[in-house]
Amino acid sequence: YSAAKAALVSYPRSLALARGAYGIRANIVLPGTVKTPAWQARADKNPQVFEQLKKWYPLGDFATPDDVADAVLFLASPAARVITGVALPVDAGLMAGIL
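Given the sequence above, the corresponding structure tokens read:
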């Protein structure tokens, strides 16, 4: 898992360098725990699962699919026209606390 993730995080940086001269931007979104139906099924079995996990998330919340989509839309928008080679966590701060 760690090697694969490192490769995925490095890939947009390499693409940004290789294709930036052509106006091509390359970024990646790194979602953390996302409240999906699969997570809801887990919560149905253990109603405290989200409360138990909150201690690891500095914002004390979890992303929704819309949060992840918003990050992707932002990176694809003109507002991000000079952003490239970025790995953007959408994880309520989870990775900030693990460094």
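The first helix runs from residue 2 to 19. Try to locate this feature in the token string yourself.
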